[in-house]
Design brief:
Number of helices: 12
Helix content: over 70%
Distance between the termini: 26 Å
Largest sheet: none
Structural class: mainly alpha
Shape: globular
Length: 281
């Protein structure tokens, strides 16, 4: 970033450094504020200080002491993992076909996938609500898993197809010449080479499912399938006179931790997957 638009001089480097610091602080300030609120006592929640004057873990203990949060956390983990597994398996097969095979309707399939990915989700909430009420899927895990798969599958196809196109197909031909069947060549030669792409796609799909709020609040009504982002809306505290801000902040920190861990550990793979899909998809 320091070399954009001319020669690198000490003054330009200092300017870009200051600008980067300001941008990072601006982006992290809401996160730091939520983190601060989660460690504050009820008496100091409104003092306006970023650093708590009195530190406490009561807010974290409170959210894990009831089933309201723990049940929602189990729902979020289960629904996101199942939707991710199904979307990645289907996306792997579709991406392999797009990258490796020539068949009628190939371009149409890619176009329809792109259309689904760009479709405004809010316009489908009402039809999905009526369909799931009729089929008995409303307020169930399946009622959330199905729309998650629908909207994450195009992302999986685009990301994986970029990885599959980079694989040298001569290796598959060599395996077949050695006597391997098409299934064995795919499982023993192609699948291991595509494993990093599959793993990257799984992370992206999991993050999409984990962060969803629109479908989760529209297609659930009880704790049976309510996920954490929606459960936060219903935190009321022990009584109407209690401010649940501390508990809500603690819950927000807990559900953000998995995403931060994924991004920090797999940052390069995530960026590689997104840029490969953008350039070659």
């Amino acid at each position: 970033m320091a070399g954009v638009g001319g020669a690198e001089t000490p003054g330009r480097k200092a300017g870009w450094t200051v600008l980067n610091i300001v941008v990072v602080i601006y982006a992290l300030l809401p996160v730091l504020w939520i983190l601060s609120l989660s460690f504050k006592t009820p008496a100091t929640l409104g003092d306006g200080n970023l650093i708590p004057r009195e530190w406490t873990l009561e807010n974290y203990a409170a959210i894990f002491s009831t089933t309201e949060f723990t049940r929602a956390l189990v729902n979020s983990i289960g629904i996101a993992l199942i939707a991710t597994a199904i979307a990645v398996v289907l996306g792997t097969m579709a991406a392999y076909a797009i990258a490796r095979l020539e068949f009628p309707g190939k371009r149409l399939l890619v176009g329809v996938s792109l259309l689904i990915a760009m479709f405004p989700q809010v316009s489908l909430v009402s039809p999905l609500f009526e369909i799931e009420r009729t089929l008995g899927l409303f307020d169930t895990w399946a009622g959330l898993i199905l729309p998650y798969i629908t909207f994450s599958l195009p992302l999986a196809i685009y990301t994986l197809s970029a990885f599959f196109r980079e694989i040298p197909w001569e290796l598959e031909k060599a395996a077949k010449m050695d006597g391997a069947t098409p299934g064995q060549a795919f499982a023993k030669v192609i699948a291991p080479l595509a494993a990093p792409g599959v793993f990257t796609t799984a992370i992206l799909v999991f993050i999409f499912c984990w962060n969803d709020f629109l479908f989760a609040i529209s297609l659930t009504s009880t704790e049976n399938s309510r996920t954490v982002p929606v459960a936060l809306q219903f935190f009321t505290g022990d009584s109407q006179f209690e401010d649940p801000t501390g508990s809500i902040s603690a819950a927000a920190v807990v559900i953000t931790i998995p995403i931060i861990v994924f991004v920090l550990f797999f940052q390069r793979r995530i960026v590689s997957g997104l840029t490969s899909g953008a350039v070659k998809g």
